[in-house]
Amino acid sequence: MEVPKLFIKDEGRNPTWSHKDRFSTVAVSVARAQGAKVVATASSGNAGASLAAYAARAGLRCVVTTFGGSANAMLAQIRKYGATALPLANKMDRWTLLAEAATRYGWFIASPYSAPVVGSHALGIEGYKTIAYEIVEQSGGVAPDWCVLPVCYGDALSGVWAGFQELYAQGAIPRLPRMVAAEVHGSLAHALVTGGDRLEERGMAFESLAVSIGAPRSAYQALKALRESCGRAVPVSNDGLVEMQERLARDEGIFAELASVTPLLAIARLRGEGVIAAKDRVVAVATASGLKDLDRSVGNPTDDTIFRSTGDAWDWLDRNAATLLVRQR
After folding, report:
1. Residue 234 — left, alpha, or beta (φ > 0 → left; ψ -120 to 50 → alpha)?
2. Could you give the CA distance from residue 258 to residue 325 in angstroms, rounded to a whole number?
3. Secondary structure class of 139 (helix, strand, coil)
4. Measured between alpha carbons, how far is 253 from 11 in angstroms, rounded to an integer?
5. Which residues pair with residue 67 across a beta bridge?
6. Residue 157: how many CB atoms within 10 A of its CB?
7. What does the alpha-carbon distance between residue 32 and residue 61 come to, in Å, rounded to a whole number?
8. Which domains does the chain have, with CATH numbers?
9. pLDDT under 50 in the chain at which residues?
């Protein structure tokens, strides 16, 4: 990619294998402090699984409204934590149900549930500041020139940017990074070009494999972070997505969710355009584990042969992986 100072912040190492845990630990603590008995969210998977886990630990009930087409592994994870998953044919019905539940039963709603989206629970978003803190701490007190995240409604982007701003205000870092949103349908990129504050819903020209960030319209909080940081928004299609996921796993040992590798495609594009310089220090935030959406990233196995003997296995290696059969000195 010709970015020598490229670093990956691997959020798949969190308890439920995604960055959403930073949000959920705060949101569930707030819910319990307020006396809530039920927490709920609208989610394509990661946020739902995370909220379900933290609700289980806090002794709260959890409801996740989702939609048809969500990754099966994420739905299974949500249910294993004891949450109630409600897949709805119409995505917007998720928000209608949550709005009614908040009014009728006082559920604590962690996610957005009205349009246009403002963002998830504001106190939960504070949890994402810790990503910025850790990036600086793990870099020896150095802030990156660029910080790139996959973006849907911009909760993490907004929270991470706020974290960098706090560090700068405290004198912990001498400068602020520029933020980049890797998005799917381009609502942020369009708003940056036109200069408007209202994000337009974009036509969905294709169904994204990156289901976690597939919304047709982002939120103002993301646009605000990009403008304040002199950042960029880069629309990313399905082209090269699986290949980049496999390259990251093969070359770096990081198996990231498809949405989580969109920052790498955005970085490659910005480097090719000369926006990111070869000397720049760049951090890509890989927000979740690749185990989350295996049903989308893995097709039919290319070779499911079962060898009947070691001789058959050696013959196959000789034909297909001869470079492995070189004696080590």
Report:
1. beta
2. 33
3. coil
4. 14
5. 88
6. 35
7. 11
8. 5-15+124-297 (3.40.50.1100), 20-113 (3.40.50.1100)
9. none
